[in-house]
Specification:
By secondary structure, the protein is of the alpha+beta class. 26% of the residues lie in helices and 25% in strands. It has a single domain, classed as NE0471 N-terminal domain-like (2-Layer Sandwich). Strand 5 and strand 6 form a beta hairpin.
Amino acid sequence: MSAPKKIRLDKAGKKLILNYADREFELPAEYLRVYSPSAEVRGHGVGDGTLVSGKIHVGVEKIASAGRYALQIFFDDGHDSGIYTWAYLRELCDTRTEKWQSYLERLQREGKGRDPDECAVKFIG
């Protein structure tokens, strides 16, 4: 998979804008953070990896190229160990709706939320 033609970081909007030959994509920082390709998030083997929650306010401090094959994203929560290959970034673009819905469903199943200041409470009556 080839690199985007243009990459722009919108710090105020907390998103990465990727221009490909066929279209433009906007990937929110929260989405990029919860789908980080790092071992910390993906896990070291099979399974769903670690569910990252409470990242609704996360932003991107900076981005840097990682050779000619990837991008390193530095988040303002200190996370910076994920190397986003061009192929993985395009996958995140093409499957954003499905991946985001899956993430929201997993948060709900595990009683977690997007906002770090909120707590999911289940009332048993």
